[in-house]
Amino acid sequence: xxxxxxxxxxxxxxxxxxxxxxxxxxxxxxxxxxxxxxxxxxxxxxxxxxxxxxxxxxxxxxxxxxxxxxxxxxxxxxxxxxxxxxxxxxxxxxxxxxxxxxxxxxxxxxxxxxxxxxxxxxxxxxxxxxxxxxxxxxxxxxxxxxxxxxxxxxxxxxxxxxxxxxxxxxxxxxxxxxxxxxxxxxxxxxxxxxxxxxxxxxxxxxx
Length: 207
What we know:
Layout (H helix, E strand, L loop, with lengths): L7 E5 L6 H11 L2 E3 L3 E2 L14 E2 L2 H9 L3 E7 L2 E6 L4 H5 L3 E5 L2 H8 L4 H6 E7 L2 H11 L4 H15 L7 E4 L3 H17 L1 H4 L11
Parallel strand pairs: 1-7, 1-8, 2-7, 3-4, 8-9
Antiparallel strand pairs: 3-6, 5-6
Helix pairs in contact: 1-8, 6-7
């Protein structure tokens, strides 16, 4: 299996859905690389550049877009976010599974990507959360004021209409249950026929 291409697993969901926590769990327990996104927003307390995000100025972000360095990028609440190709392509080629938590705009860009290697590696998952549960999670997080909270809840309603465009959906419960659901998806993708088709054409398993 040394010539196997990695899986590119895209995870989306509204703010507060737990998608980043899910991706961290897959990184720590499932030997996946969790991509570090770029953003133009300011770091929050405790966030380290290159670990939480690659923090870029707006000018640098735009310049990198112009150079074609992003696999996907989007404007969310007036701030830019994106994933560099350097975070993904080499790892897939080396056979490492890559997991990303990105919004529906970025996920749509990857879903529509014409690169055959990306298309062969790609699988996407949407995390659904009940509105009352989502509000409780955002309030408990304590990072949004009332105006920001209302805006995020409105955006969440719009985002959750997109779930049918994804190959898989997880109805969020507790963290352990969500992890088991995502782990089952990854295990299935690693073993089903399309996963085997990620092998390069010269791979052989006998007659």
